[in-house]
Write a structure and sequence with these properties.
CATH class of the largest domain in chain A: Alpha Beta
Number of helices of chain A: 18
CATH topology of the largest domain in chain A: Rossmann fold
Number of strands of chain A: 15
CATH architecture of the largest domain in chain A: 3-Layer(aba) Sandwich
Oligomer: homodimer
Distance between the termini of chain A: 60 Å
Largest sheet of chain A: 7 strands, mixed
Structural class of chain A: alpha/beta
Largest interface: A-B, 46 and 46 residues
Shape of chain A: globular
Radius of gyration of chain A: 20 Å
Number of domains of chain A: 2
């Protein structure tokens, strides 16, 4: 184990070294992400229109493609200090197990009760809602991490919190509901009978296990029909990637502290919040021509928006009540097989990441579920941390790349995002242990059907 | 929020500041803890006798009342670096919520997959088993934290691991089993039909929800009847307190770094592993007359060994196969009401802590369950971390003491041990939210019955 004397197992920044501003990668993008469109007129959504759904200041952040650094309000920085900086871990034990010359680092975002990076944006969104004098917020949640994060942020600030949780996750993760309840939130399995759109989806697809797209529609409906409420979202949106840039900024600061330059940055991608945040300062350098990095998005083979989707305008939600976003999408009606990475079961992808991918600035890989859990278990046994299924997608590719280095002898430096812990995913691990894991991959015929339903643009 | 500029929210030591040796508080005790006795002869257990049950080097540590510092082997220090140092957190948000002049700190041991401090001793015990060339180890677990910790340590070192889990916890925490399985352990609910003693207990107490005492008996039976196996224990023993001193040593180093002197140190106490570890260096100063601290053990009112037990020789296990230990005990047949702090459901208490308590060097308080969960929820909402029920006993008393400071205006510095997270305790939180929490406290008559069964000593 070389280097142990120089590079610690975990690099923690001092509080004084924590980012004071978020970094807005859009400012450095030559090709800006395409604007959100009004689903009726197909014209770019105005701040006024967006303000009916989102908090005012978040609308500004959503639309701001120019400001490179946006200051993190002191209240949010204080909250960050309760669970950040998160450690950048050198995976010495994994390297030894794999007998690879590669140097592997992971940014571990799971050491907070929400169990993931989601808290970084939850506190920001709740803060601006509070600042605007709102009564509460509504949202959807997949694996439950975003919902938990938002519940925590709302409890801290004294806001009401209504969460629509994708039914398959609600059933697989009964205790997640109780965690959110501990933080005072109300949680409804989606699709539900509590909204018009929920009732419609249930009538059309009885027995559906739900999707993030359905849950978003329900949460938006509740927000726009209850005075004093706004909708908040844990992924996809530009504002979320902005808040999540704290992950990448800390990662870069930690690497810089020890003079480490990564060759490769890997992250799982559902809506893109973690990956977008992790890569942002590195992508910024790449966009400005200051450095080059290989950047890899990893998605489930059962929900392959980057690798098998199309880059087109589509609805963000199944109910088609949200604005249209230009993104890599499988079609807003696409409901993936009930895989166990609830946080990656989204039909589309962040418009920012979609543009970067379209411009050839990053790659994507789709991995099957069983291979993901094999990587998860191997990682847990040597590195100690029980990873979330979502995060394990990144682990899978990091291990694959480290094994390639073993073949070639290359001493590449690999950084990946370990977004969260799998404590509430034990039903999935049980299926894996019992050999009952499903590796369903959609056929081309299926994908074609959903693709045909994309909105017609002029 | 005064002081924020000086004292960070979380104090992390550098790797180079981590303890290189464990501290053995027995070396500074004028009145040494009473020796373990052979249950047949009532003579002190010899190293040879103990060696049939425990690993050789651990027997040495168990019997060593003289060596003040025992070096932590490099392999264990490397493992510690994967999840340690743990943060010492300044509870700024809790202080503000309580409007107290008290300064509250907590040493948070929950940021590892076992979810608690148990890993500190698990890796040490597994290491010595491996070093001795053993095939595997057996153990019992209550809440499942110790079993998970041992599974992790065994997976890391390639040892077989058999866990007997108290039935009430096994049923309340179905996912704990799956975590242990991820780390390759086998888990059996106790009492079970797999051992002689298990079958006997089941015949005498059909429908029992089990206890740590029962589970210990089963694990010991399996260890002594299978070649190449030894028994390991997560609490009570002197060796465990020795390993757990890493908690207190880090705490003290972090406080010293900022020149903070605590007035009061609070920890939950089941078998005493966390409390014993947390207080050890402070108790050392107290024993040597260098400083004074108020030290408070907190136990469940349903299992009040310190506050309502007697200081006497008793069996460590229900099956009466283990050595006798002199400790505060409720009687080895005592099976507490099925409260939700599985890790505190033990009839006895560490002999070291028992001696210190008998000598008036520390206090103890018993708290009812509902009050504990009220404190847990209050803490979670302001500090973010969802605490384990066990740890929440310490939170309860820390809050009570901080509120007393509010009355008196005293600016006391309170340090408490936050031993772990409650992610696998959501059944308990659910009962609390639904108002179905039981506050059963044993009657004097009940306690008298069990006390009458204590072994007769010459």
């Amino acid at each position: 184990m070389a280097d142990t004397t120089k590079i610690p197992y975990k690099i923690y920044l001092e509080e004084s070294e924590m980012p004071q501003s978020w970094y807005n990668v859009r400012a450095d993008m030559k090709n800006k992400p395409a604007p959100l469109l009004n689903p009726g007129t197909h014209q770019p959504m105005t701040a006024e229109e967006l303000g009916g759904v989102f908090c005012e200041e978040l609308v500004q952040q959503e639309l701001d493609n120019e400001t490179r650094f946006i200051e993190i309000p002191q209240e949010i920085r204080d909250f960050y200090k309760m669970y950040r900086p998160s450690p950048l871990v050198r995976a010495y034990c994994l390297e030894e197990k794999l007998q690879t010359p590669a140097k592997i680092y992971y940014k571990f975002e799971g050491n907070n009760t929400s169990g993931s990076h989601k808290l970084n944006s939850a506190i920001a969104q709740a803060y601006y809602a509070k600042k605007q004098g709102l009564k509460g917020v509504t949202t959807e949640t997949g694996a439950g991490q975003w919902g938990t994060a938002l519940s925590m942020a709302c409890a801290y600030l004294g806001l009401d919190c209504k969460v629509y949780m994708v039914k398959v996750s609600y059933e697989q993760k009964p205790f997640r509901r109780e965690v959110m309840r501990t933080y005072g939130a109300s949680v409804v399995p989606s699709p539900s009978e509590t909204t018009q759109i929920g009732r419609k989806i249930l009538a059309e697809h009885p027995g559906t296990t739900g999707s993030l797209g359905c849950a978003i529609s329900e949460a938006v409906e509740v927000a726009v029909s209850n005075p004093g409420y706004r909708y908040v979202l844990g992924s996809v949106l530009n504002q979320v990637l902005l808040h999540q840039s704290v992950i990448g900024l800390e990662t870069k600061a930690a690497l810089d502290k020890y003079g480490i330059k990564p060759d490769m940055i890997i992250g799982c991608a559902g809506g893109g919040s973690n990956l977008g945040g992790l890569i942002s300062p590195f992508m910024g350098e790449k966009l400005r021509g200051e450095a080059d990095y290989q950047i890899i998005a990893v998605e489930p083979a059962s929900c392959p928006s980057f690798t098998r989707g199309v880059y087109a305008y589509d609805f963000c939600d199944t109910g088609m009540v949200c604005p249209l976003a230009k993104m890599y999408t499988l079609g807003c009606d696409f409901i993936p097989a009930p895989n166990h990475a609830g946080g990656l079961r989204y039909h589309g992808m962040s418009p920012v990441l979609s543009q970067l991918y379209a411009d050839g600035l990053m790659e994507a890989r789709a991995v099957p579920q069983t291979a993901v859990f094999e990587a998860a278990e191997q990682f847990a046994r040597v590195e100690g941390i029980l990873p979330a299924p979502e995060s394990s997608h990144a682990i899978r590719v990091a291990i694959d790349e480290a094994l390639k280095c073993k073949e070639t002898g290359e001493e590449k430096t690999i950084v990946f995002g370990l977004t969260g812990t799998g404590y509430f995913d034990m039903v999935a691990y049980e299926k894996f242990h019992d050999g009952k894991m499903d590796d369903y991959i959609p056929t081309d015929e299926e994908l074609t059907i959903y693709r045909a339903k994309l909105p017609k643009m002029d």
